Amino acid sequence: EVQLAESGGGLVQPGGSLRLSCLASGFPFGVYEMSWARQAPGKGLEWVSSISSFDAVTYYADSVQGRFNIARDNAKNTVYLQMNSLKSEDTALYYCARCPGETVRAGRCIWRGQGTQVTVSS
């Protein structure tokens, strides 16, 4: 059974940082591209970032480029999202997904966790 468990969310002031983690189990983690997506209140699911399987090529949405960094540790079955220079518009429920970015953007990803809440507010 595919399981994705996000952690690391919380309340942070504008300009602050958070690091999200996603522990994966139930599948061969190292062979899958992994993604992060988010959903703000009243809005649809937004793709944030992806990282390829073997060569760890990274991809970012324009809205987070230069502020967020995705990484993975295949030995620990974990994908991370380092979020810096956070803005109020980054407030959302953040999901880890076992899908490539194009699948998330197409709204067809069914493999994602329960999410971790990130709130950016002073």
Net shape: globular
Main sheet? 6 strands, mixed
Class computed from helices, strands and strand pairing: mainly beta
Fraction in beta strands: over 45%
- What's the helix-strand series? EEEEEEEEEHE
Topology at a glance:
Blueprint: E1 3-7, E2 10-12, E3 18-25, E4 34-39, E5 45-51, E6 58-60, E7 68-73, E8 78-83, E9 92-97, H1 101-105, E10 116-120
Parallel strand pairs: 2-10
Antiparallel strand pairs: 1-3, 3-8, 4-5, 4-9, 5-6, 7-8, 9-10
Write up what this structure looks like:
The chain has 122 residues and is mainly beta. The chain has one helix spanning 101-105, and strands at 3-7, 10-12, 18-25, 34-39, 45-51, 58-60, 68-73, 78-83, 92-97, 116-120. A 6-stranded mixed beta sheet has the order 2-10-9-4-5-6. The N and C termini lie far apart (40 Å).
